[in-house]
Amino acid sequence: MSGPQLSGQTVVVIGGSAGIGFETARSARAEGADAIITGRNPEKLERAARELGALSSAAFDATDSDALERFFADLPDSIDHIMLTAGGPYYAPLAELDFAAALRSLDNELLLPLRLARHSVGRVRPGGTLIFVGGTGARHPSPGLALASAVTLALPALVAGLALEVAPIRVNLVAPGFVDTPLSASILGDDLEARREQLRTTLPIRRVVGPEDVAALAVHLMTNTALTGATYDVDGGQQIATAAWG
Q: Among residues 55, 57, 75, 93, which one has the fewest Cβ atoms lying within 10 Å of its Cβ?
């Protein structure tokens, strides 16, 4: 029987105080890794770090380029894996589009991964990983999703290009569909249980995807050293089910 897959390694999760990021840090800890987590809310982050037994934590906004640079300057000399889960897409119909918010979204979704990749060179060990989190929900054009769809399609190309530029550091994209997280609960409110039931009925896996499912994929990407430059869906078959519905 093999031992922990990440023993002696250090995993950094930016956006690790809740949801997918927290579960990834927890899974990495279970595989023997030290975890460093970040988040915007100091109290929430402190609770998460204490529960995880994290090596350290840092409260800051990852979209603040100066704060991100300071964070990297304070990291240990060698990091094995970094996962970015912070942020989310911006949805709005054209008539209601807030261009300032749209620019913030583009900075968060496309420029932040570029900044992180540049900081990783010389800090993440050769063969280590950068893992970004995108999504599958905006792949199909729909009113109000123009910007989100553009970002969804751009991210795989960005990841493939970065995998060549920062090699032998490996770069991959995880693309979840709906994930049953506290954020999803806060967005859907009273409609949450109806959404869960719809997914249980329509997804090929006949259950709802949870953050632990995404975390399991992230840990696999850390440990399988043959994987780089690719996008991996973790949506319970939502994409193929949508295609089948026509």
A: 93
Distances (CA, A) of 12 to 19, 46, 94, 116, 223: 15, 15, 37, 12, 15
Q: Which domains does the chain have, with CATH numbers?
A: 10-180+212-231 (3.40.50.720)
Residue with structure tokens 């915007």?
Answer: 40
In 94-189, DSSP assigns E strands to 124-133, 170-176
**In the structure encoding, which two tokens stand for residue 23, read together?**
């579960």
Selection from 129, 106, 94, 104 nearest residue 11 by Cα: 129
Strand order, beta sheet including 79-84: 56-59, 34-39, 10-14, 79-84, 124-133, 170-176, 231-234
Q: Is the pTM of this model over 0.90?
A: yes
pLDDT by residue for the chain (246 residues), tens digit each?
467 899 999 999 999 999 999 999 999 999 999 999 999 999 999 999 999 999 999 999 999 999 999 999 999 888 999 999 977 778 889 999 999 999 999 999 999 999 999 999 999 999 999 999 998 877 777 888 888 889 999 999 999 999 999 999 999 999 998 888 877 877 778 888 899 998 999 999 999 999 999 999 999 999 999 999 999 999 999 888 876 555
Q: How many residues does the chain have?
A: 246
- Which residues, 6+ apart, have CB-to-CB distance to 50 below 8 Å? none
- Nearest-angstrom CA–CA distance, 94 and 174: 28
